[in-house]
Amino acid sequence: MTPAIAFDRIPRDRLPALLQRMPKAELHIHIEGSLEPELIFALAQRNGLTLAYPSVEALRAAYAFTDLQSFLDIYYAGASVLLHEQDFFDMAWAYFQKAAADHVVHAELFFDPQTHTERGVDIGVVIRGLHRACQQAQAELGVSASLILCFLRHLSEEAAFDTLEAALPYRELFIGVGLDSSEVGHPPEKFARVFAKCRALGLHVVAHAGEEGPPAYIHAALDVLQVERIDHGVRSVEDPALMQRLAANRVPLTVCPLSNVKLCVYRTMADHQLPALLSAGLCAMVNSDDPAYFGGYMNDNFLATFDGLPQLGAREAWQLAANSFEASFVPAAQKAVWQAELDRVFADAAA
Ligand SMILES: Nc1ncnc2[nH]cnc12
Ligand SMILES: [Zn+2]
């Protein structure tokens, strides 16, 4: 329910400061996608590895993507510098410091264990390093955080089962599972059985769908995998019945605007369908996806989105932050605390 905030009294020139100051949750961040070129080079040096690029600048210059796969190739190569528990901690800690500065009060981090276990890194090294950063984020920054283990969909369901089994000793350190990597050609049905097992274990379940893949993949993620949220889901606008279904059930879409432009899902931000999703009543919100690769973190995403889409105003800013809390996997009492803080920020701005 929208509270009695006079959104119309908030002038547009005050929006950037409000977007930055408002509390928000980030629900779609691949922690390996927060690895900045500077940290890639520092970790390569610490671990005695040689990179395919001669400098930070040369690596950054290679970040010109034409589609999802062109990004994934370079993203997996970047993650190859992560070997030790401290490497995973350092990566996540760098993210949390940026998140705190952006007034992210809660983050649910995706991680891709198969990217690391395929290189001989033990899954316990990955999870323990990330978990320690989550604990320190709460203790030192007041940012609450949890982990979501993603299966790589270009690999087999059997490999996903093996990954789940290897992760079970750490069951208490992650809250759910997701599905990411190359979407087209790897529909949700491929992972039906492993997701059923995850649900039976009491894990939350989410999946990337409708980023590059068709609306049918979103239907399948809901019907077959029984996911609680759809990651991206922007291609739902092509299917009016699906839009109605998502709105009626308040199925969250974790939308990533800068990612969609960088990966050429949309030509420009002005073409992004976020306004259509919001005006159809969907529970969409803004996220950064892979901030080190796509040009920015949470507030960069909010600022670029509102800059490119002038039809979005203070009401939509409030709605996006409210949706991020509604869609998070935290207890209702905690959501209410953040929501009250959000309402206060907007009520003050409108006063
Ligand atoms: N945007 C994205 N889509 C699918 N898999 C990913 N892995 C990291 N970022 C991703
Ligand atoms: Zn993603």
UniProtKB/TrEMBL annotation:
SUPFAM superfamilies according to UniProt: Metallo-dependent hydrolases (SSF51556)
Annotated keywords: Hydrolase, Metal-binding, Nucleotide metabolism, Zinc
Binding site for Zn(2+): H28, H30, H208, D289
Cofactor annotation: Zn(2+)
Cofactor binding notes: Binds 1 zinc ion per subunit.
EC number: 3.5.4.2
InterPro entries: A_deaminase_dom (IPR001365), ADE (IPR028892), Ado/ade_deaminase (IPR006330), Metal_Hydrolase (IPR032466)
GO MF annotation: an example: zinc ion binding
Classification via PANTHER family: ADENINE DEAMINASE
Protein name: Adenine deaminase
Source organism of the structure: Ideonella aquatica
